[in-house]
Every structure is written in structure tokens, then in C-alpha cells.
């Protein structure tokens, strides 16, 4: 019923909408590209942090939001990416850009191997199993002499990049991840992925190979997180297993994605920005901001499971629709 | 032989640690990702009472239990019950949120340092068949056996136990015959929180704790209940003892620094090879 009423409105708004998206994308690109020009050093570093956490949250969103697989293993991919870059730069003559790409490939490879057992599990079993893999990897790294066990592992002096370069890498990663997720979401593959999320048995019944679909999404997601890990390593200069493989990365990705809006494109970006704002505001009280974010996470999932973006969209729909009295009556009737 | 005895007693403690997770899963099909923080948080609560009043840790555990029961009841009633209606992911996110909030609140209140509960008996040990076993582990095994027996009795004989089993079998049918399922679920979570208090106090006595140690304990407890057959109370005891034995033998073979790796690999292995656990049937 409602589609019939809104049909003429729709046709007009499609053109406006794609124009708006195009203009918005151009503005974002220009802003991202020119930012180091007018930001001071401190702000450039902050922008790096924000863009990196956007990229990580968006990457988690691919498997956690669109795929419905609540992965608690993603902190492991950050650590794997960090250490891959560090080891390659210390022990081989690989150029820096290649070490960053290989860091993503290493994380993707680990994801593909871990997926063989993990993705046979569903729901909660997958979540806890992935947590088990992540903690097993951490305790392996703590004992691995190849990477100095718990002692710090330093990158060579040649790996130190200017703040602007670091910024552009993070901006590129955030952009690449978002574009990739956008393309996936509109593709047949994305539809299969969401079908598996919404009802795995039904999707399998319709001929979707759920394992392959989940495997592809998990691996792709891990690739971007691994590259993010490489950026973490390049920014920090030294690594240690406990902070590189920290569950905090996983927690932050999930908080950002859920607060912003699970399984939506702008959600993780909005969530990461909101988190960033809160953390900056409470920068001397890091624990308090985590506490508040945890409470917000609970409030969102309880009161507005669509996240901030869900609320925004709801508001837009109400504004744009101007439903007739007839329609309102219909809706009320349907609700009862 | 020494390893076997150590493993059995350690396993008893693990079973006590996992019982709350078993109960929640058995009745509600909910894996409580905040179980680790429930253990550690209630142990901190007992720690505060024990140090402020100068009480024995086990006595302070009894003292804090009613408060913990009410807190658990409220969390289920206000937060988790509404989320359970929306499928798998929302309750998962909800309990994940509780775990973040609890562990962060503990860092704020107590700093990230290691704390432990101390009692006159916490360092002493007893000879059993010629092998030394610490008193805390003996209490742990005794508690596990006692709690499993009590829980079985409660579930099979009492009115509330019948309501619990009914709500577990078929929530809709249960509410049709007059069981207040929301109340039963909240009571279950409260009871699980009390069980977690016992487990948490044992952890604090035997190993000490930090605000972030909950995650590792969640995984240990989950390993135990997967081995024991998700949701089976008796299986939890068996699962705990298997994990205990595997950990003691594994770490004497590979080195104690690999304890965690052994247990977490066991978890992943068992999830893949036998997701229904060693004792098959999935029911309370």
C-alpha cells in the first residue's frame, strides 16, 4: 500500500539521491585529500587515528554486520598484520608498500585457515570459537622466540614515515574498505551473504553455498584489518604481542559498528566518529570513555538496534513521507 | 599419577566456574559472554566485603550472594529478556556490552593490578595418596560436586526446578500452562550469578585476578560446557575434570607457559570435531 502512494515521489528522489551521493563523494574525496594542507601535525595524527578506526570498523561490519557472523577474532588480524610488516621490514628487503599489502594477505590467509573450522560453527559457537582462536594466537605470540616473545619488536629506522604519509595511507584504507563494502553490498555476492545472515538454512535451500560465501567475506574483512594492523605498526614503530593482539581492537570495531548501525554502509563510519569524539572529549579519562561506550552499546542494542544511522534514516523517512491520515489509520490497524 | 590427581582437583574448580554458564545456556539457549566478568566482578565484590569487615572469603561470599542474586535478576529482566525476542545477535551484543562495562568499571575502581583473596588455608596443602594438593582445590572439587548435586536436586524435585525445565523445553507451552517465563529466566540468571560468585571466589583464592582476566575464564568455562554437552549439569562436572586433566598433562609435557594455548586449542578442536560435546544430549 505504502509503495503505491509513494511511487511518484520515489522516481523524483532517485535522481536527486544519486546526484547528492555523487556530490557528497566528491566533497569527501576533496576534503580527505586536502586535509594535511590545513591540519597541524597533532590534528593530522588524530585524523589518522579516526580514519584507521573507521576502516577497521567498516571491515568488521562486512562479516559482522552484512554477514551476521559475530567475530571476536579480529584483534588477531590486527596483530598478524602488524607483525608481518615488522618482520618483513626487519628481515627482508621488501619495499614498504609491498610489506603493507603482504600484511593484509597474511591476515587473509590466517582467516582462511581459521575459517575452515570456525565457519562450520553457527551463531554463538562461532563467536566463542573465534575468541578462542584469538586468545590461542596471543598466547602463541607471547611464547614465540621468532618475534622476541613478550619483549618489544622494533621496526627499522627506514620504516619511519612522515605524519602526512601515514595519514594518506589511513585515508586510502578507509576509502578502499568503504568502497569495497559498498560494492559487495550491491553485488550478488552481497545478497547471498545477507541471505545467509537472515536465514542460513533457507539460503542453503535456495542453492547458496553458505560456507564459501562466509569464507569470502571473512577473508576479505581480515585482509583490510591486516592492512590496518600494518599501519598500526608503522605508526607505533615498536610492537609487543599483548597490545598488538589486544581484544581492545575487536571491542572497538564492534562498538563502532553497532553504535553506528550494523550492516549499513555509513554505520561504522558514524560509530567510529562518535567514539572518537567521546574519547577526545574524555582523553584524560580513557577508562571512563570505554565505560560510557559500553553503556551506549547496551542502550543502542536495547532501544535502537539500527544504531545512529537507523535513527537518522527513520527521521528522514518520517520527514519525507508526510503520510496521509488514511495511511496512518492503515498502519495503526496493521499494528493492532 | 600426581598429574592425574592435580588434574581432577583443578577440574573440580573449573566445573564450579562453569556451572553458571551451563545453567543460563541450558534454560535460555543463551551464551552469556559476560560470564567471565560475572565471575571476576563478584569476586571483587567479595574481596571488598572480606577486607572491609575482616571476614573469611568464603563467609563474605555468602554475604554478597543475595545482592548478586538481585543484580542478576534485574539484568535479565530489564535487559536480556527483551533482547532474547530478537534472535541470536542482540543478546550476544547485550552480554558483550555487560562484559565491557563490568571489566572497565573494575579497572576504574580497583586499577589493573592483580589482587587475590587470602585466607589462612589458601597457601596450605594436604597429602592425597602421597601427592600434595592445595586446600583451595579441594574446596573447589567439593563445591563442584556439592553444587552439581544440589542443582540436579533442585531441577528434578522442586517446583521452581519444574518451572525451569518447562521454560527450557518449550517457553510458549510453559507460559500457556501458567509459568511466568520472564520471571523464571530472570531467576535463572540470578542463580547463575550466585554460582559465578562461588566460582569467582575460588578463582581469587587459587589464582588471583585482574579486571581483564574474565575473558580467559569465559573461554575455560565454555570449553568445559562444550565438553560436557552444552547445558548438561552433570556433564559440566565431567567436562571440568577433563579440561583440568588435559591442562595439567599438557602443560607438564609442553611447559606451563602453554597452559592457555592448550585449553583454547582444545576448545576449538572440540567445537569442530564434536560440537555436541562428549556427552551428547543437550538438555538441562
Could you outline the blueprint of secondary structure elements for this entry?
The complex is a heterodimer of chains A (336) and B (284).
Chain A: H1 2-38, H2 41-66, H3 74-91, H4 96-118, H5 123-143, E1 153-154, H6 163-186, H7 188-198, H8 200-205, H9 210-236, E2 238-239, H10 241-244, H11 247-260, H12 266-281, H13 286-303, H14 307-321, H15 325-335
Antiparallel strand pairs in A: 1-2
Helix pairs in contact in A: 2-6, 2-9, 2-11, 2-12, 3-4, 3-9, 3-11, 4-9, 6-7, 6-9, 7-9, 11-12, 11-14, 12-14
Chain B: H1 2-28, H2 35-53, H3 57-84, H4 89-110, E1 125-128, E2 131-134, H5 135-157, H6 159-169, H7 171-176, H8 181-206, H9 214-227, H10 233-254, H11 259-273
Antiparallel strand pairs in B: 1-2
Helix pairs in contact in B: 1-5, 1-8, 1-9, 1-10, 2-3, 2-4, 2-8, 2-9, 3-4, 3-8, 5-6, 5-8, 5-10, 6-8, 9-10, 9-11, 10-11
Structure in a nutshell:
The complex is a heterodimer of chains A (336) and B (284). Chain A has 336 residues and is mainly alpha-helical.
Descriptive notes:
The complex is a heterodimer of chains A (336) and B (284). Chain A has 336 residues and is an all-alpha fold. Chain A is built from 15 helices and two strands. In chain A, strands 1-2 form a two-stranded antiparallel ribbon. The longest helix of chain A has 37 residues. The radius of gyration of chain A is 21 Å and the shape is globular. Chain B contains eleven helices and two strands; from the N terminus they run ααααββααααααα. Chain B has a two-stranded antiparallel ribbon with strand order 1-2. With 284 residues, chain B is mostly helical. Classes of the chains: A mainly alpha (336), B mainly alpha (284). At the A-B interface, α5, α11 and α13 of A face α3, α4, α9 and α11 of B.
Rg of chain B to the nearest angstrom? 18 Å
Percent of sequence in beta strands of chain A? under 5%
Which spans of chain A have pLDDT < 50 for at least 5 consecutive residues?
1-6
Give me the number of helical elements of chain B. Answer: 11
In whole angstroms, the N-to-C terminal distance of chain B is: 33 Å
The biggest beta sheet of chain B reads: 2 strands, antiparallel
Order of helices and strands of chain A: HHHHHEHHHHEHHHHHH
Amino acid at each position: 500500500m505504502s509503495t503505491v502512494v509513494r511511487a511518484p515521489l520515489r522516481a523524483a528522489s532517485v535522481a536527486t539521491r544519486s546526484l547528492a551521493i555523487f556530490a557528497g563523494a566528491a566533497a569527501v574525496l576533496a576534503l580527505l585529500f586536502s586535509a594535511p594542507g590545513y591540519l597541524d601535525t597533532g590534528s593530522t595524527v588524530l585524523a589518522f587515528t579516526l580514519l584507521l578506526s573507521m576502516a577497521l570498523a567498516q571491515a568488521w561490519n562486512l562479516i559482522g554486520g552484512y554477514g551476521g557472523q559475530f567475530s571476536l577474532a579480529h584483534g588477531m588480524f590486527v596483530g598478524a598484520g602488524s607483525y608481518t610488516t615488522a618482520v618483513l621490514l626487519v628481515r627482508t628487503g621488501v619495499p614498504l608498500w609491498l610489506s603493507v599489502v603482504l600484511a593484509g594477505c597474511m591476515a587473509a590467509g590466517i582467516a582462511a585457515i581459521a575459517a575452515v573450522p570456525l565457519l562450520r560453527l553457527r551463531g554463538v559457537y562461532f563467536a566463542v570459537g573465534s575468541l578462542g582462536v584469538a586468545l590461542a594466537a596471543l598466547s602463541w605470540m607471547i611464547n614465540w622466540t621468532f618475534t622476541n616473545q613478550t619483549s618489544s619488536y622494533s621496526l627499522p629506522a627506514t620504516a619511519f614515515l612522515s605524519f602526512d604519509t601515514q595519514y594518506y595511507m589511513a585515508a586510502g584504507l578507509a576509502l578502499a574498505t568503504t568502497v569495497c563494502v559498498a560494492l559487495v553490498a550491491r553485488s550478488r555476492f552481497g545478497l547471498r551473504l545477507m541471505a545467509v545472515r537472515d536465514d542460513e538454512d533457507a539460503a542453503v535451500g535456495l542453492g547458496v553455498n553458505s560456507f564459501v560465501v562466509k569464507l569470502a567475506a571473512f577473508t576479505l574483512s581480515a585482509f583490510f584489518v591486516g592492512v590496518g594492523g600494518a599501519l598500526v605498526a608503522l605508526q607505533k614503530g615498536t610492537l609487543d604481542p599483548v597490545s598488538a593482539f589486544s581484544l581492545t581492537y575487536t571491542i572497538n570495531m564492534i562498538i563502532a559498528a553497532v553504535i553506528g548501525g550494523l550492516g549499513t554502509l555509513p554505520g561504522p563510519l558514524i560509530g567510529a566518529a562518535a567514539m572518537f569524539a567521546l574519547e577526545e572529549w574524555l582523553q584524560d579519562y580513557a577508562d571512563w570513555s570505554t565505560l560510557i561506550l559500553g553503556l551506549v552499546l547496551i542502550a543502542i542494542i536495547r532501544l535502537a538496534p539500527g544504531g545512529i544511522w537507523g535513527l537518522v534514516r527513520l527521521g528522514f523517512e518520517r520527514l519525507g513521507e508526510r503520510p496521509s491520515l488514511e495511511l496512518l489509520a492503515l498502519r495503526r490497524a496493521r499494528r493492532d | 599419577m600426581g598429574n592425574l590427581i592435580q588434574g581432577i582437583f583443578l577440574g573440580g574448580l573449573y566445573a564450579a566456574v562453569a556451572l553458571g554458564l551451563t545453567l543460563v545456556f541450558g534454560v535460555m539457549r543463551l551464551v552469556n559472554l559476560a560470564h567471565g566478568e560475572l565471575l571476576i566482578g563478584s569476586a571483587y565484590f567479595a574481596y571488598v566485603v572480606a577486607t572491609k569487615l575482616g571476614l573469611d572469603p568464603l563467609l563474605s561470599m555468602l554475604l554478597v550472594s543475595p545482592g548478586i542474586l538481585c543484580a542478576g535478576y534485574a539484568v535479565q529482566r530489564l535487559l536480556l529478556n527483551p533482547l532474547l525476542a530478537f534472535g541470536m545477535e542482540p543478546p550476544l551484543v547485550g552480554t558483550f556490552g555487560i562484559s565491557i562495562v563490568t571489566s572497565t568499571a573494575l579497572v576504574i575502581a580497583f586499577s589493573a593490578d592483580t589482587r587475590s583473596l587470602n585466607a589462612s588455608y589458601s597457601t596450605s596443602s594436604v597429602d592425597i595418596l602421597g601427592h600434595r594438593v592445595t586446600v583451595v582445590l579441594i574446596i573447589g572439587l567439593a563445591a563442584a560436586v556439592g553444587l552439581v548435586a544440589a542443582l540436579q536436586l533442585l531441577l528434578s524435585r522442586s517446583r521452581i526446578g519444574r518451572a525451569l525445565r518447562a521454560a527450557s523445553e518449550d517457553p510458549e507451552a510453559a507460559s500457556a500452562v501458567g509459568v511466568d517465563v520472564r520471571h523464571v529466566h530472570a531467576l535463572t540468571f540470578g542463580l547463575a550469578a550466585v554460582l559465578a560468585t562461588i566460582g569467582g571466589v575460588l578463582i581469587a583464592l587459587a589464582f588471583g585476578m585482574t579486571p581483564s582476566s574474565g575473558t580467559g575464564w569465559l573461554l575455560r568455562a565454555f570449553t568445559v560446557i562444550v565438553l560436557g554437552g552444552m547445558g548438561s549439569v552433570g556433564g559440566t562436572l565431567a567436562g571440568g575434570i577433563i579440561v583440568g586433566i588435559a591442562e595439567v598433562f599438557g602443560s607438564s609435557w609442553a611447559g606451563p607457559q602453554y597452559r592457555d594455548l592448550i585449553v583454547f586449542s582444545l576448545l576449538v578442536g572440540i567445537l569442530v570435531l564434536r560440537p555436541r560435546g562428549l556427552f551428547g544430549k543437550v538438555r538441562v
